[in-house]
Design goal:
mainly alpha, 3 helices, 64 residues, single chain
Amino acid sequence: MDQERIIFIIDYLSRFTDKNRYVSIKDIQDHLCEVTNLKRVAEVTIRRDLDRLTSMGNNIHREP
């Protein structure tokens, strides 16, 4: 399920963000709840997924 979750996250980011539009971790959590059978995904899990996506060469701007 990890790979599927990451695919849902990168798809969401590519459709709903750009350099002028941002989303929060909560936005990502809500999206995953809506489109998958996942209940609430932990914030730390989403942060790890974003780290993986960044390490794979995706340009993801994050603010603390």
